[in-house]
Amino acid sequence: MSDQNEEKPFLDGVSRRSFLGVGSAALATVAMAGLTANAQQRDDTAKAEGDNSSSDPGPENRVLLKQNPHTNTPPPTDHGEIGPVWYSFDLSRKRVEEGGWTHQVTQRELPTSKDLAGVNMRLTSGSFRELHWHTANEWAFMEYGTARVSVLNPDGTMFIDDVGPGDLWFFPAGYPHSIQGLGKDGCQFLLVFDEGNFSEDNTFLLSEFVAHIPPDILTKNSRLSPSDIAKLPKEQLYIFPADLPQSLAADKAAIGGSRVQAPQQYTFKMGSMAPTFTSAGGEVRVVDSSNFPASTTVAAGLVRLKPGGMRELHWHPNATEWQFWLSGKGRMTIVMPEGRARTMDFNANDVGFVPAVAGHYIENTGTEDLVFLEMFKAPRFLDISLNNWIRRMPPEMATSHLNLDAETLKKIPSEKQAVIAG
Protein backbone atom coordinates (compact mmCIF):
# COMPACT_ATOMS: atom_id res chain seq x y z
CA MET A 1 0.00 0.00 0.00
CA SER A 2 1.11 3.58 -0.57
CA ASP A 3 2.89 5.37 2.26
CA GLN A 4 2.03 8.78 0.82
CA ASN A 5 1.16 11.64 3.17
CA GLU A 6 -1.99 13.51 2.32
CA GLU A 7 -1.30 16.73 0.41
CA LYS A 8 -3.27 19.95 0.47
CA PRO A 9 -4.39 21.28 -2.90
CA PHE A 10 -1.84 23.57 -4.57
CA LEU A 11 -4.55 26.25 -4.53
CA ASP A 12 -5.66 25.76 -0.94
CA GLY A 13 -9.10 27.23 -0.35
CA VAL A 14 -10.11 27.52 -3.99
CA SER A 15 -13.67 26.26 -4.38
CA ARG A 16 -14.77 23.83 -7.10
CA ARG A 17 -17.08 25.60 -9.52
CA SER A 18 -20.26 23.96 -10.66
CA PHE A 19 -21.24 23.89 -14.31
CA LEU A 20 -23.29 26.74 -15.70
CA GLY A 21 -26.61 25.89 -17.25
CA VAL A 22 -25.36 25.68 -20.81
CA GLY A 23 -26.47 23.16 -23.39
CA SER A 24 -23.18 22.29 -25.06
CA ALA A 25 -19.74 23.60 -25.92
CA ALA A 26 -20.91 24.36 -29.43
CA LEU A 27 -23.84 26.41 -28.14
CA ALA A 28 -21.51 28.30 -25.81
CA THR A 29 -19.14 29.03 -28.67
CA VAL A 30 -22.02 30.51 -30.64
CA ALA A 31 -23.02 32.58 -27.62
CA MET A 32 -19.52 33.95 -27.16
CA ALA A 33 -19.30 34.64 -30.88
CA GLY A 34 -22.45 36.69 -30.48
CA LEU A 35 -20.82 38.66 -27.69
CA THR A 36 -17.83 39.25 -29.94
CA ALA A 37 -20.04 40.47 -32.77
CA ASN A 38 -21.80 42.78 -30.35
CA ALA A 39 -18.43 44.11 -29.21
CA GLN A 40 -17.46 44.97 -32.77
CA GLN A 41 -20.53 47.18 -33.07
CA ARG A 42 -19.51 49.05 -29.93
CA ASP A 43 -16.32 50.87 -30.90
CA ASP A 44 -18.16 54.04 -29.89
CA THR A 45 -18.96 52.65 -26.42
CA ALA A 46 -17.96 55.84 -24.63
CA LYS A 47 -20.44 57.88 -26.63
CA ALA A 48 -23.28 55.49 -25.81
CA GLU A 49 -22.76 55.32 -22.03
CA GLY A 50 -24.93 58.32 -21.31
CA ASP A 51 -28.00 57.37 -23.33
CA ASN A 52 -30.12 54.31 -24.01
CA SER A 53 -27.96 52.93 -26.84
CA SER A 54 -26.45 50.10 -24.81
CA SER A 55 -29.70 48.88 -23.21
CA ASP A 56 -30.82 45.32 -23.96
CA PRO A 57 -34.55 44.74 -23.25
CA GLY A 58 -34.39 41.25 -24.79
CA PRO A 59 -33.33 37.95 -23.16
CA GLU A 60 -29.90 37.79 -21.52
CA ASN A 61 -27.75 35.13 -19.85
CA ARG A 62 -27.07 37.26 -16.81
CA VAL A 63 -24.71 34.73 -15.20
CA LEU A 64 -22.51 34.74 -18.30
CA LEU A 65 -22.69 38.53 -18.62
CA LYS A 66 -21.69 39.01 -14.98
CA GLN A 67 -18.64 36.84 -15.50
CA ASN A 68 -17.67 38.61 -18.73
CA PRO A 69 -18.60 42.31 -18.41
CA HIS A 70 -15.79 43.58 -20.65
CA THR A 71 -16.63 41.03 -23.33
CA ASN A 72 -20.18 42.24 -23.81
CA THR A 73 -19.50 45.93 -23.25
CA PRO A 74 -15.83 46.46 -24.12
CA PRO A 75 -13.78 49.55 -23.27
CA PRO A 76 -13.73 52.16 -26.04
CA THR A 77 -10.09 51.26 -26.79
CA ASP A 78 -11.19 47.87 -28.19
CA HIS A 79 -11.40 47.77 -31.98
CA GLY A 80 -11.77 45.26 -34.82
CA GLU A 81 -11.50 41.47 -34.53
CA ILE A 82 -8.58 39.27 -33.52
CA GLY A 83 -10.30 35.87 -33.35
CA PRO A 84 -11.23 33.69 -30.35
CA VAL A 85 -9.01 34.13 -27.28
CA TRP A 86 -11.25 32.51 -24.62
CA TYR A 87 -12.77 29.15 -23.81
CA SER A 88 -13.62 27.30 -20.60
CA PHE A 89 -13.12 23.72 -19.49
CA ASP A 90 -16.56 24.07 -17.90
CA LEU A 91 -18.03 24.09 -21.42
CA SER A 92 -16.11 21.01 -22.54
CA ARG A 93 -17.77 17.59 -22.46
CA LYS A 94 -16.38 15.29 -19.77
CA ARG A 95 -15.56 11.67 -20.49
CA VAL A 96 -16.39 9.97 -17.19
CA GLU A 97 -15.02 6.48 -16.46
CA GLU A 98 -14.95 4.36 -13.34
CA GLY A 99 -11.89 5.84 -11.66
CA GLY A 100 -12.03 9.40 -12.95
CA TRP A 101 -12.74 11.71 -15.87
CA THR A 102 -11.12 13.81 -18.55
CA HIS A 103 -12.05 16.72 -20.82
CA GLN A 104 -10.07 18.87 -23.20
CA VAL A 105 -9.68 22.24 -24.91
CA THR A 106 -7.94 21.89 -28.27
CA GLN A 107 -7.85 23.73 -31.59
CA ARG A 108 -11.34 22.35 -32.24
CA GLU A 109 -12.70 24.40 -29.32
CA LEU A 110 -10.25 27.31 -29.63
CA PRO A 111 -9.40 27.51 -33.36
CA THR A 112 -6.68 30.14 -32.97
CA SER A 113 -4.55 27.84 -30.77
CA LYS A 114 -2.55 25.81 -33.29
CA ASP A 115 0.49 25.10 -31.10
CA LEU A 116 -0.86 23.83 -27.77
CA ALA A 117 -3.84 21.86 -26.49
CA GLY A 118 -4.93 21.14 -22.92
CA VAL A 119 -6.53 18.24 -21.06
CA ASN A 120 -7.86 18.39 -17.51
CA MET A 121 -7.97 14.98 -15.81
CA ARG A 122 -9.10 13.50 -12.50
CA LEU A 123 -8.05 10.12 -11.09
CA THR A 124 -9.51 8.67 -7.90
CA SER A 125 -7.33 6.93 -5.33
CA GLY A 126 -5.52 3.98 -6.93
CA SER A 127 -6.98 4.60 -10.38
CA PHE A 128 -4.79 4.61 -13.49
CA ARG A 129 -4.65 6.59 -16.68
CA GLU A 130 -3.85 3.48 -18.64
CA LEU A 131 -0.28 2.85 -19.85
CA HIS A 132 -0.08 4.71 -23.16
CA TRP A 133 1.94 6.92 -25.50
CA HIS A 134 1.08 9.57 -28.10
CA THR A 135 2.34 11.70 -30.96
CA ALA A 136 2.85 14.90 -28.92
CA ASN A 137 5.11 15.83 -26.03
CA GLU A 138 3.22 15.96 -22.72
CA TRP A 139 3.77 18.71 -20.11
CA ALA A 140 1.72 18.53 -16.91
CA PHE A 141 0.87 20.61 -13.84
CA MET A 142 -0.51 18.99 -10.68
CA GLU A 143 -3.52 20.93 -9.41
CA TYR A 144 -4.60 18.70 -6.54
CA GLY A 145 -3.62 15.55 -4.65
CA THR A 146 -0.77 13.17 -5.40
CA ALA A 147 0.08 10.73 -8.17
CA ARG A 148 2.74 8.24 -9.21
CA VAL A 149 4.09 8.67 -12.71
CA SER A 150 6.38 6.47 -14.79
CA VAL A 151 8.03 6.72 -18.21
CA LEU A 152 10.22 4.28 -20.17
CA ASN A 153 13.24 5.48 -22.17
CA PRO A 154 14.13 3.81 -25.50
CA ASP A 155 17.30 2.40 -23.87
CA GLY A 156 15.17 0.46 -21.38
CA THR A 157 15.80 2.68 -18.36
CA MET A 158 12.74 3.62 -16.33
CA PHE A 159 11.76 6.77 -14.45
CA ILE A 160 9.29 6.56 -11.53
CA ASP A 161 8.38 9.40 -9.17
CA ASP A 162 5.58 10.72 -6.98
CA VAL A 163 4.21 14.21 -7.67
CA GLY A 164 2.07 16.56 -5.61
CA PRO A 165 0.40 19.98 -5.86
CA GLY A 166 2.41 22.45 -7.95
CA ASP A 167 4.69 19.76 -9.43
CA LEU A 168 5.34 19.29 -13.15
CA TRP A 169 6.29 16.46 -15.45
CA PHE A 170 7.37 16.24 -19.08
CA PHE A 171 7.12 13.06 -21.19
CA PRO A 172 8.57 13.01 -24.73
CA ALA A 173 6.36 11.97 -27.64
CA GLY A 174 6.29 8.22 -28.18
CA TYR A 175 7.66 7.39 -24.71
CA PRO A 176 5.23 5.01 -22.89
CA HIS A 177 4.08 6.28 -19.51
CA SER A 178 1.49 5.93 -16.76
CA ILE A 179 -0.26 8.07 -14.12
CA GLN A 180 -1.86 6.63 -10.97
CA GLY A 181 -3.82 8.49 -8.30
CA LEU A 182 -2.50 8.15 -4.73
CA GLY A 183 -3.67 9.02 -1.22
CA LYS A 184 -7.27 9.05 -0.01
CA ASP A 185 -8.65 11.20 -2.82
CA GLY A 186 -6.42 10.69 -5.83
CA CYS A 187 -5.46 13.71 -7.90
CA GLN A 188 -6.32 16.23 -10.60
CA PHE A 189 -3.91 17.68 -13.15
CA LEU A 190 -3.59 19.72 -16.32
CA LEU A 191 -1.92 18.11 -19.35
CA VAL A 192 -0.56 20.37 -22.11
CA PHE A 193 0.41 18.94 -25.51
CA ASP A 194 2.50 20.65 -28.19
CA GLU A 195 -0.02 19.88 -30.96
CA GLY A 196 -3.06 22.16 -31.26
CA ASN A 197 -5.23 19.40 -32.75
CA PHE A 198 -4.20 16.80 -30.17
CA SER A 199 -7.04 14.61 -28.87
CA GLU A 200 -6.92 12.70 -25.61
CA ASP A 201 -9.11 10.09 -27.30
CA ASN A 202 -6.42 9.46 -29.92
CA THR A 203 -3.66 7.97 -27.76
CA PHE A 204 -1.89 4.64 -28.23
CA LEU A 205 -3.08 2.32 -25.46
CA LEU A 206 -1.41 -0.84 -24.14
CA SER A 207 -4.79 -2.63 -23.98
CA GLU A 208 -5.64 -1.89 -27.62
CA PHE A 209 -2.17 -2.88 -28.81
CA VAL A 210 -2.39 -6.39 -27.35
CA ALA A 211 -6.11 -6.78 -28.22
CA HIS A 212 -5.47 -6.34 -31.93
CA ILE A 213 -2.40 -8.56 -32.39
CA PRO A 214 -3.05 -12.18 -33.51
CA PRO A 215 -2.75 -14.56 -30.50
CA ASP A 216 -0.07 -16.68 -32.15
CA ILE A 217 2.09 -13.60 -32.67
CA LEU A 218 1.63 -12.59 -29.03
CA THR A 219 2.67 -16.08 -27.97
CA LYS A 220 5.76 -16.03 -30.19
CA ASN A 221 6.70 -12.52 -29.02
CA SER A 222 6.11 -12.84 -25.28
CA ARG A 223 6.39 -16.62 -24.56
CA LEU A 224 2.97 -16.45 -22.92
CA SER A 225 0.78 -19.52 -23.24
CA PRO A 226 -2.55 -19.42 -25.13
CA SER A 227 -4.36 -19.51 -21.77
CA ASP A 228 -2.33 -16.49 -20.65
CA ILE A 229 -3.16 -14.66 -23.87
CA ALA A 230 -6.87 -15.32 -23.29
CA LYS A 231 -6.72 -13.26 -20.08
CA LEU A 232 -5.48 -10.09 -21.78
CA PRO A 233 -7.89 -7.12 -22.18
CA LYS A 234 -10.15 -7.25 -25.22
CA GLU A 235 -10.90 -3.51 -25.28
CA GLN A 236 -9.37 -0.28 -24.01
CA LEU A 237 -9.08 0.35 -20.30
CA TYR A 238 -8.38 4.11 -20.60
CA ILE A 239 -9.13 5.13 -16.98
CA PHE A 240 -9.77 2.34 -14.49
CA PRO A 241 -9.61 1.61 -10.73
CA ALA A 242 -6.82 -0.43 -9.16
CA ASP A 243 -5.19 -1.04 -5.79
CA LEU A 244 -2.81 1.54 -4.39
CA PRO A 245 0.82 0.74 -5.17
CA GLN A 246 3.66 -0.09 -2.81
CA SER A 247 5.93 2.68 -1.57
CA LEU A 248 7.94 4.54 -4.19
CA ALA A 249 11.15 2.94 -2.92
CA ALA A 250 9.61 -0.54 -3.13
CA ASP A 251 8.41 0.05 -6.70
CA LYS A 252 11.85 1.26 -7.77
CA ALA A 253 13.47 -1.78 -6.21
CA ALA A 254 10.94 -4.15 -7.78
CA ILE A 255 11.86 -3.13 -11.34
CA GLY A 256 15.62 -3.44 -10.85
CA GLY A 257 16.75 -0.50 -8.72
CA SER A 258 19.59 1.75 -9.84
CA ARG A 259 20.53 -0.67 -12.65
CA VAL A 260 17.47 0.39 -14.67
CA GLN A 261 16.99 3.90 -13.27
CA ALA A 262 16.65 6.60 -15.95
CA PRO A 263 19.36 9.29 -15.84
CA GLN A 264 16.84 12.02 -16.82
CA GLN A 265 14.68 13.87 -14.31
CA TYR A 266 11.19 13.99 -15.86
CA THR A 267 9.52 15.77 -12.90
CA PHE A 268 10.02 19.25 -11.42
CA LYS A 269 8.88 20.88 -8.14
CA MET A 270 7.48 24.15 -9.50
CA GLY A 271 5.24 24.96 -6.55
CA SER A 272 8.09 24.89 -4.03
CA MET A 273 10.71 26.74 -6.10
CA ALA A 274 11.66 30.29 -5.19
CA PRO A 275 9.82 32.89 -7.31
CA THR A 276 11.74 34.07 -10.37
CA PHE A 277 10.29 37.53 -9.84
CA THR A 278 8.43 38.99 -6.86
CA SER A 279 6.99 42.42 -5.97
CA ALA A 280 4.20 43.94 -3.93
CA GLY A 281 1.87 43.08 -6.81
CA GLY A 282 2.59 39.35 -6.83
CA GLU A 283 5.11 36.84 -8.13
CA VAL A 284 6.10 34.77 -11.15
CA ARG A 285 7.79 31.35 -11.27
CA VAL A 286 9.37 30.50 -14.62
CA VAL A 287 10.19 26.93 -15.65
CA ASP A 288 11.73 26.13 -19.01
CA SER A 289 14.62 24.08 -20.41
CA SER A 290 17.13 26.22 -18.50
CA ASN A 291 16.04 24.83 -15.11
CA PHE A 292 14.00 21.77 -16.23
CA PRO A 293 16.15 20.29 -19.03
CA ALA A 294 13.66 17.54 -19.91
CA SER A 295 11.06 20.14 -20.95
CA THR A 296 12.44 20.81 -24.42
CA THR A 297 9.27 22.12 -26.13
CA VAL A 298 7.12 23.70 -23.40
CA ALA A 299 8.06 26.72 -21.26
CA ALA A 300 5.78 28.08 -18.55
CA GLY A 301 5.24 30.79 -16.00
CA LEU A 302 3.11 30.37 -12.87
CA VAL A 303 1.77 33.85 -12.07
CA ARG A 304 0.14 35.05 -8.85
CA LEU A 305 -1.33 38.58 -8.87
CA LYS A 306 -2.56 40.34 -5.73
CA PRO A 307 -5.91 42.19 -5.97
CA GLY A 308 -5.40 45.17 -8.26
CA GLY A 309 -2.03 43.81 -9.45
CA MET A 310 -1.25 43.31 -13.10
CA ARG A 311 1.12 41.48 -15.40
CA GLU A 312 2.87 44.42 -17.05
CA LEU A 313 2.35 45.40 -20.71
CA HIS A 314 4.52 42.95 -22.64
CA TRP A 315 4.71 40.44 -25.48
CA HIS A 316 6.47 37.15 -26.20
CA PRO A 317 8.82 37.13 -29.20
CA ASN A 318 9.09 33.38 -29.67
CA ALA A 319 5.64 31.75 -29.34
CA THR A 320 1.89 32.02 -28.89
CA GLU A 321 0.64 31.95 -25.29
CA TRP A 322 -1.81 29.35 -23.92
CA GLN A 323 -3.19 30.17 -20.48
CA PHE A 324 -4.94 28.14 -17.79
CA TRP A 325 -6.68 30.21 -15.11
CA LEU A 326 -6.46 28.42 -11.75
CA SER A 327 -8.18 30.82 -9.35
CA GLY A 328 -9.47 34.37 -9.04
CA LYS A 329 -10.79 36.74 -11.66
CA GLY A 330 -9.09 38.98 -14.18
CA ARG A 331 -9.18 40.68 -17.53
CA MET A 332 -6.81 40.82 -20.47
CA THR A 333 -6.52 43.14 -23.46
CA ILE A 334 -4.67 41.96 -26.58
CA VAL A 335 -3.51 44.45 -29.23
CA MET A 336 -2.80 43.39 -32.82
CA PRO A 337 -1.72 45.18 -36.03
CA GLU A 338 -4.12 47.62 -37.73
CA GLY A 339 -5.37 48.78 -34.35
CA ARG A 340 -7.25 45.56 -33.58
CA ALA A 341 -7.77 45.14 -29.85
CA ARG A 342 -9.90 42.83 -27.69
CA THR A 343 -10.61 42.81 -23.96
CA MET A 344 -11.85 39.61 -22.29
CA ASP A 345 -12.70 38.56 -18.74
CA PHE A 346 -11.41 35.30 -17.28
CA ASN A 347 -12.37 33.11 -14.33
CA ALA A 348 -11.12 29.88 -12.75
CA ASN A 349 -11.01 26.93 -15.17
CA ASP A 350 -10.88 29.21 -18.24
CA VAL A 351 -8.37 28.94 -21.07
CA GLY A 352 -6.86 32.06 -22.62
CA PHE A 353 -4.93 32.50 -25.85
CA VAL A 354 -2.58 35.27 -27.03
CA PRO A 355 -1.32 35.31 -30.65
CA ALA A 356 2.44 35.29 -31.11
CA VAL A 357 4.16 38.65 -30.41
CA ALA A 358 0.85 40.38 -29.59
CA GLY A 359 1.05 43.04 -26.88
CA HIS A 360 -1.09 42.38 -23.80
CA TYR A 361 -1.51 42.75 -20.04
CA ILE A 362 -3.42 40.76 -17.40
CA GLU A 363 -5.07 42.52 -14.45
CA ASN A 364 -6.54 41.07 -11.27
CA THR A 365 -10.08 42.50 -11.14
CA GLY A 366 -11.22 40.42 -8.17
CA THR A 367 -10.86 40.49 -4.39
CA GLU A 368 -8.62 37.42 -4.02
CA ASP A 369 -5.30 36.41 -5.53
CA LEU A 370 -5.40 35.66 -9.25
CA VAL A 371 -3.35 32.58 -10.19
CA PHE A 372 -2.80 31.38 -13.75
CA LEU A 373 -0.33 29.51 -15.93
CA GLU A 374 1.06 30.98 -19.13
CA MET A 375 2.55 28.33 -21.44
CA PHE A 376 4.49 28.39 -24.70
CA LYS A 377 5.58 25.90 -27.32
CA ALA A 378 9.21 26.91 -26.93
CA PRO A 379 12.32 25.77 -25.06
CA ARG A 380 12.72 29.13 -23.29
CA PHE A 381 10.40 31.61 -21.59
CA LEU A 382 10.97 35.00 -23.24
CA ASP A 383 9.07 38.26 -22.84
CA ILE A 384 9.59 41.89 -23.83
CA SER A 385 8.60 44.66 -21.40
CA LEU A 386 7.08 47.81 -22.92
CA ASN A 387 8.40 49.96 -20.06
CA ASN A 388 11.87 48.47 -20.37
CA TRP A 389 11.93 49.13 -24.14
CA ILE A 390 10.82 52.76 -23.81
CA ARG A 391 13.45 53.50 -21.15
CA ARG A 392 16.23 51.79 -23.12
CA MET A 393 15.64 54.15 -26.07
CA PRO A 394 17.63 57.38 -26.28
CA PRO A 395 15.31 60.03 -24.75
CA GLU A 396 14.89 61.93 -28.01
CA MET A 397 13.77 58.74 -29.74
CA ALA A 398 11.06 58.12 -27.13
CA THR A 399 10.07 61.81 -27.15
CA SER A 400 9.54 61.87 -30.90
CA HIS A 401 7.33 58.77 -30.77
CA LEU A 402 5.32 59.40 -27.59
CA ASN A 403 5.16 63.21 -27.42
CA LEU A 404 6.54 63.16 -23.86
CA ASP A 405 9.50 65.23 -22.72
CA ALA A 406 12.63 63.62 -21.29
CA GLU A 407 11.76 64.47 -17.69
CA THR A 408 8.28 62.95 -17.97
CA LEU A 409 9.74 59.77 -19.49
CA LYS A 410 11.69 59.20 -16.26
CA LYS A 411 8.40 58.37 -14.51
CA ILE A 412 8.30 55.12 -16.51
CA PRO A 413 10.09 52.22 -14.75
CA SER A 414 13.37 51.48 -16.49
CA GLU A 415 13.60 47.80 -15.53
CA LYS A 416 11.31 44.90 -16.39
CA GLN A 417 8.60 44.70 -13.72
CA ALA A 418 6.82 41.45 -14.72
CA VAL A 419 4.21 42.14 -12.01
CA ILE A 420 3.01 45.63 -11.00
CA ALA A 421 1.15 46.41 -7.77
CA GLY A 422 -2.33 47.92 -7.94
Please identify the structural class as seen in this structure.
alpha+beta
Report the β-strand fraction as a percent range: 25-35%
Oligomer: single chain
> Please, what is the average pLDDT?
90
Shape: elongated
* CATH fold call of the largest domain: Jelly Rolls
Q: What is the domain total for the residues?
A: 3
CATH architecture of the largest domain: Sandwich
What is the CATH top level name of the largest domain? Answer: Mainly Beta
- Uncertain spans, ≥5 residues at pLDDT below 50? 1-6, 13-43
- Radius of gyration computed on alpha carbons: 24 Å
Tally of DSSP helical segments? 11
Q: Major sheet: size, sense and barrel closure? A: 7 strands, antiparallel
What distance lies between the first and last C-alpha atoms, to the nearest angstrom?
49 Å
Strand order of the largest sheet: 1-22-19-24-17-16-15
How many beta strands in the DSSP annotation?
Answer: 26
Helix content: 10-25%
3D structure, described in words:
It is a single chain. With 422 residues, the protein is α+β, with helices and mostly antiparallel strands. It folds into 3 domains: 22-48 and 60-78, no CATH class; 94-268, Jelly Rolls (Sandwich); 273-420, Jelly Rolls (Sandwich), CATH 2.60.120. The chain has helices spanning 25-40, 45-48, 62-67, 69-72, 206-211, 215-222, 226-229, 248-254, 386-392, 395-402, 406-409; strands spanning 86-88, 95-97, 100-105, 117-123, 128-133, 138-145, 147-152, 158-163, 167-171, 177-181, 187-193, 204-205, 239-240, 267-269, 277-279, 282-287, 299-305, 310-315, 321-327, 329-335, 341-347, 350-354, 359-364, 370-376, 384-385, 419-420. The strands form 4 sheets. It has a 7-stranded antiparallel beta sheet with strand order 1-22-19-24-17-16-15, with no helix packed on it. The chain has a 7-stranded antiparallel beta sheet with strand order 2-3-4-11-6-9-14, with no helix packed on it. Strand 15 and strand 16 (282-287) form a beta hairpin. The longest helix has 16 residues, at 25-40. The protein starts with 24 loop residues before the first helix and ends with a strand.
